[in-house]
Amino acid sequence: MKKxxxxxxxxxxxxxxxxxxxxxxxxxxxxxxxxxPPPATAAPLPAxxxxxxxxxxxxxxxxxxxPYWKIxxxxxxxxxxxxxxxxxxxxxxAPDSWIVGVHLIHSYSNVFLRAKTAVNPAGSVGLICRYNxxxxxxxxxxxxxxxxxxxxxxxxxxxxxxxxxxxSDTSAxxxxxxxxxxxxxxxxxxxxxxxxxxxxxxxxxxxxxxEGNIGISAASLAQAPATVLFEWIxxxxx
Length: 238
What we know:
mainly beta; Jelly Rolls; nine-stranded antiparallel β-sheet; globular
């Protein structure tokens, strides 16, 4: 999948409004009304505790939804759905829809990301490093047709993102629907892997991103719908 020099997409935001029915007073006078006995009170249920944040280097198998992941959909005429159940399953029903997921806790200069992914029938998966809300991020994507690319992503405004291509190529190694992409962000170089094979070592000195969060991406192509599966992601120092 070749990306245009800039892709601008609008973010879908779902909002739900809930109207409670109003209370209608009875005609009975409060002076003659016999007050009911006080209801029995039960002990309140304990609130679900917020899970402890993971350490800087960890493996996530997406057993359940985490407050530390922020997942945003950009573009697409229909909302995507996300299921956490020993994997992260993204159902993207609309064409040309992009998903950006960022882990919010730790910031990294150098970090090695790996994931086990699957795409069906057509779409792309990606890994993100040095994500900064203001300055942008690096994104390594692999499409189901074997095209892989390194992009510089940046928010122009809320829900509007632009992508600048840094590098793009195709590889027979990246044509399988089940892949293990890898991204090693080290100093001024980004190393792009698939199934432990090095695809490219890219010098990103001129782009200037030095530190930020890690994340994932997923997209549907013109042939929608697309289902993207992240079985796990591993964050290591090398």
